[in-house]
Backbone:
């Protein structure tokens, strides 16, 4: 897990505010459920806000959150380039703010406030794991998976979003890991689905029809 080395101030935290990018996002919903369970077990007051994937709305939610007298803000930021403004508001209120899932583009913003943090995995790790899994499967039976016999691993890529550093790294390192395993790859399709399952399904249906799979 990535955190900044300097410790947060010790506080008795009983009221936490969680501002989520979008309730309908599957991963966000999973985190939300886990935190709600934990808050119940620890007798913490957890308040939730849905930004509906709108940074303007998320910005407007912050003053309201602060006015409630919360002890800490957990932030799944919509626009990773907007962290400086968010941190400034938390700093003015002397509130710790912890970003998760979507890391601010400029990690230098943490230096402006010693009570700000990001918690997450290394961006490239998930891509490396994905690439290793695909390479291992391919090498178990190349003849089976090389359906057109061109000696290449033809693939399509569903991309979460170009504004998400984690998605960009997963995309890059998944393919790079396959290539480093000695497998020649060939991209035949790419779709930016922006975490929208319907967009992803439509893209997949089109690819399957086009390639007669």
Residues:
């Amino acid at each position: 897990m990535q955190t900044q080395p300097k410790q947060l101030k010790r506080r008795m935290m009983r009221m936490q505010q969680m501002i989520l990018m979008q309730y309908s996002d599957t991963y966000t919903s999973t985190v939300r459920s886990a935190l709600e369970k934990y808050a119940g077990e620890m007798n913490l007051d957890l308040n939730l806000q849905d930004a509906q994937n709108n940074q303007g709305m998320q910005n407007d939610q912050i003053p309201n959150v602060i006015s409630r007298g919360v002890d800490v803000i957990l932030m799944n930021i919509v626009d990773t380039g907007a962290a400086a403004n968010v941190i400034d508001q938390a700093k003015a209120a002397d509130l710790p703010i912890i970003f998760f899932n979507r890391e601010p583009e400029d990690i230098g913003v943490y230096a402006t406030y010693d009570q700000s943090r990001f918690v997450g995995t290394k961006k490239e790790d998930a891509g490396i794991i994905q690439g290793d899994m695909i390479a291992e499967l391919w090498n178990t039976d190349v003849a089976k998976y090389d359906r057109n016999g061109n000696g290449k691993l033809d693939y399509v890529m569903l991309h979460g979003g170009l504004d998400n550093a984690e998605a960009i790294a997963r995309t890059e390192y998944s393919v790079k890991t396959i290539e480093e395993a000695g497998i020649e790859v060939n991209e035949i399709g790419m779709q930016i689905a922006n975490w929208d399952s319907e967009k992803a399904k439509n893209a997949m249906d089109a690819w399957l029809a086009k390639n007669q799979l």
